[in-house]
TrEMBL record:
Organism of this sequence: Paraclostridium bifermentans
Name by which UniProt lists this protein: Peptidyl-prolyl cis-trans isomerase
Annotated signal sequence range: none
EC number: 5.2.1.8
InterPro entries for this protein: Cyclophilin-like_dom_sf (IPR029000), Cyclophilin-type_PPIase_dom (IPR002130), Cyclophilin_A-like (IPR044666)
């Protein structure tokens, strides 16, 4: 059985192709495919860019605080899931605040990032168009406490997926964070990072 292949068309740019790995992260893959089929990612932006480290998008509000009303299980070793995909260059992962709060926010690393191994859900890898990922990772940014925001966001024009005839069900949905809870955790994270003074945080 062939793994699903996602095609991410970048507005005023090239396409990025990503292979998904349902055997290692079935819920993550089902969730990503479900959102693609709904057109959720179309016209969303890469709002966060850590230059030559990662690009992050998938937020419905394009600022990192958007919510969907549900979450999915964190498919990583530290949450009891036998997912051995490493965060090597080009790996696709889900952003989160804590375990089991993943929903739609995703990132692609542009360098090997072993500090994320076992603790974040990796579920895909770029197989074509890494030069476009690299281009996005070099845009001008501005620092906000511990992360860098793209000064001029780059948008996903559309995203499609080829499943090679395999039907993927919707993921098992967990109770997601509310908008208020998300903002509270966001502000708490900002305050924590201000105290430590460290900005070397990828996710």
């Amino acid at each position: 059985m062939k793994n699903p292949i996602v095609t991410m068309k970048i507005k005023d740019g090239k396409s990025i192709k990503i292979e998904l790995f349902p055997n290692e992260a079935p819920e993550s893959v089902k969730n990503f495919i479900s959102l693609i089929h709904k057109g959720f990612y179309n016209n969303t932006a890469f709002w966060r860019v850590e230059n030559d480290k990662l690009i992050q998008g998938g937020c419905p509000e394009n600022n990192g605080t958007g919510v969907l009303g549900y979450s999915i299980k964190s498919e990583c070793l530290s949450n009891g899931v036998d997912n051995n995909l490493k965060f090597t260059r080009g790996t696709l992962g889900y952003g989160r605040f804590e375990h089991n709060t993943e929903s739609c926010h995703f990132f692609i690393v542009t360098q090997d990032t072993p500090q994320l191994d076992e603790n974040f859900a990796s579920f895909g890898r770029v197989v074509d168009g890494m030069d476009e990922v690299d281009r996005i990772s070099k845009v001008e940014t501005e620092l906000e406490v511990f992360l860098h925001r793209a000064v001029e966001k780059i948008y996903i024009e559309n995203m499609t997926v080829e499943t090679f005839g395999v039907k993927y069900d919707d993921p098992t949905k967990l109770l997601g964070l509310s908008k208020e809870e998300t903002l509270s955790k966001w502000n708490a994270t900002m305050e924590e990072r201000k105290k430590t003074g460290s900005v070397d945080r990828f996710v």
